[in-house]
Amino acid sequence: MRQEHVRRVRLPADRRTPAAARAVVRAVLSEGGLDELLNEALLLTTELSTNAVVHARTELEIEVVADGHGLTVTVTDFAAGQLETLSARTRPEETDISEVSERGRGLLLVDHFSSRWGTTHLRHGKGVWFRLDRKIPAPDLLPEIGPPESAVGAGATPSAKALTTLLQSVPDPYGDDALGDFATDLLARVCELVGAAGGVVRLDRGDGGGQQQLARYGRAPRPDVPTVRVPLTVHRPYSGELELDAAPSGYAAPLATLVAERLSLHLENDRLRRADLRRQTWLTFLAEASELLAQSLDVELTLALIPQLVVPRLGQWCAVHTTDEWGRLELATAIHADESALPQLHAALKESGPDSALARLREVSRTGGQAPLGAPTDGIALPLIARGQALGTLAVGRHNRQRHDPDEVAVLEDVARRAGLAIDNARIHDERRRVARTLQQSLLPPVLPVVPGIGFAAEYVPTGSDIEVGGDFYDVMPLPDGRWLVVVGDVSGKGVQAAAVTGLVRDVIRVLAHDGKPLPEVLARLNDTLVERGGGRYCTLALAAVGRSVDGLLDTTLYLAGHDRPVLIRADGRAAFVGTGGTALGLIDAIASPATEVQIRAGDALVFYTDGVTERRRGRELFGPERLRAAAAPLAGYSADVVAARLRTTAIGFSIDPPRDDIAILVLRNDP
C-alpha cells in the first residue's frame, strides 16, 4: 500500500499566493510520484487560489493529499457568505466548455478537468475541493491531451498544459512597460487558444487622460462583427475592458473572463502601488510646503509664496484673499499657469452678484467650509483659518481636463491649513517686529544735538533678531553748567525686561544730570536704583562731560563704570585707548568710579562703543579692541559722521553672520 502524503498550509491574500500554492502542490506530486497529474493540478490550484484572492480577500488554507490513486486539493477561505451547495460528480465528457453547467466562472475549469469536486462549509469559512484520479491505460491507448498549442483553433479544446501556461505567466518586474507587455502576452495566448483574430485591452486610470489602449494583439476588433467584451474587475479610479475579435461561443467567453480576472489582479496591484506612490509624493510636497512657509516670516512674501506652491501642481490658477479689520475680502495675490489669462482671472474675481466667484468666497469666509466655484472660474474655494480666526480664502482653479479628485482636495485642505498658520505667524512676527522697533527707537535719541565746534555722530545696529530689543543705548544731553554729557551704555540681556531697565537707566541719568548732580553721585544713585529695581540685571556705562576751554580744547571728564575704554584718535593719525575702568552698576552696593581727564585737541576724535563691536565673531575669532584701534587710526582727519560709518562697516564686514549683539558707536570730535 502506497504511503499517503499530506500538506496543509495557510497563505496570505496577496498576488504571491497562487505561486505559493502551486509550489506546495508540485512538492506533494513529486513526493507521491504523480507527475502525470502536474498540468491539471497546477491549473486548477491556480484557478481556485486566484479566485479566492480576488473575491474572498482573506487568508487561504491549502490542503493537498496525495495517495497511490490520485490527488485531492482543498482551498478554503475565511470570508463570510455561502457557496451554492453542489454535489460531487465525475469528470464530464463534453469537450465544449459552454456545455458544462455554469456554477460560477471560477469553477468551470474545475468542473471540466477534475475527476470529482465539491464544496465544504465550515463555521469559520468555506472551500472548494477537487480530485484528480490517476490514469494507467495501455501505452498505445493513451489519449491526446489536446492538439499542439500552435494548432489550436476556434473549435478545438485547449489542453491543460496550455491553460496552465496561460495562468502562470507573470509580468516582468524589470520591464520598462511590464503591465503592457504582460497584457499583450496574455492577449496573444488567449487569442491563440480560442482562435481569435485579435484583441485589445483598454484601461482608464482616472488621471484625466480617458481610456487608453494598454495592449493589442493581431487585428483590432471590428465594430460590425460580434466580439467578446469582458470588463476588468478593478477599483476606482481604474476602469477598463478586454475585447476579443471572436464569436462569443465555446471557450472564448470563459477564457476571456479568466484572462480579464488575472489581468485585473495585476492592474489592482498597479493601482495600489500608484496610489501609495502618489500619497508619498503628496506627503513630500506637504513637508516641503511647510518648510518653505515656515521660513517666511514676512506677510507679503508668505502671501506671494502660497499660490506658487499650488500652481500648476494642484490647479491652473490660484488666488488668495485676505480679510480686513471689517471682515471684507481683499485680493492679496493671484497667479495663472497661463500668464496671458491672468487679466481675465482678475476680472472674474472682481465680478459681483449672487452667483459670482466673489460671492462664493464670501460664503466660504463666513461659514468656514469649502465650496465649489462655477464657470468661468471652475475650481474650489477653501477658508484660511488659524487659531480660530478667519484670515481669508484660498481659491484654486481646476485642471484642464478634470476636476480635483478626493486626494487633491485633501491636500488642498492641508495646504490651506498650513497657509493660514503661516500667514498668522507672519502677522504675529510683523507685529512683534513693529513693537520691538518702536520700543528700540524710544530708547535712543531721535537726533543728536548740533553744537558749534563739536561734532556728534552715532551708528546703531540691532541684533540679528529683529523682534528682540537690545540693551545698548547712547545719549547726548546738556548739563546745567553749559557742558555736554555723552552717555554710552549696555544693559545685560535682551528683550522687554532689558529694554525696561535701559529706559530706567536713561531716565535716571537725565533727571539727575538736569538737577546738576555731580557725575560720581549720578553713578552711585544709579547703582542703588539698579540694585533695588534692576531685577538682577547690571549695566556698563561710559559718561563723559565735555566742555570747550578758552584755548579751543575740549576738556573731557571721563567715567567708565565697567565699560570698554574709548579710542582717542589724534589728528596726526595716532590712536590709543583712554580712561580708567570702574565697577559695573547693579552688581554690588558700593562702586568705584575713578575719573580721567582727557583733552581733545582740534581734529581729534573720541570713539565710544559697546561690546557688540569688540565681541563680533568670525568663527572662533573675535574682532577685538586692537582691531578696532587699528581700524580707527586711518580715520584721523575725517568728520564724526564718516568715522562712525566707517567703523560700523568694518565691524559688520568682519563676519558674514548677522550680529549676535547690538552694536552702538558714538563719535565725539573737536571740529576746528
Mean pLDDT metric: 85
Strand order in the largest sheet: 1-2-3-5-4
Compute the number of strand runs.
26
Q: Can you count the helices?
A: 15
Enumerate the spans where pLDDT stays under 50 for 5 or more consecutive residues.
84-105, 138-155
The largest pleated sheet is described as: 5 strands, antiparallel
Decide which structural class fits the backbone.
alpha+beta
Residues in helix, %: 25-40%
Overall shape = elongated
Termini separation comes to 130 Å
The fraction of residues in strands falls at 15-25%
Cα-atom Rg, whole angstroms?
44 Å
Description of the structure:
About 6% of the residues have low confidence. The protein has a five-stranded antiparallel β-sheet with strand order 1-2-3-5-4. A five-stranded antiparallel β-sheet has the order 11-10-14-13-12, with helices on both faces. A five-stranded antiparallel β-sheet has the order 15-26-23-20-21. Helix 1 packs antiparallel against helix 2 and helix 6 packs parallel to helix 10. Strand 2 and strand 3 form a beta hairpin. 36% of the residues lie in helices and 25% in strands. It has 672 residues and is α+β, with helices and mostly antiparallel strands. It contains 15 helices and 26 strands.
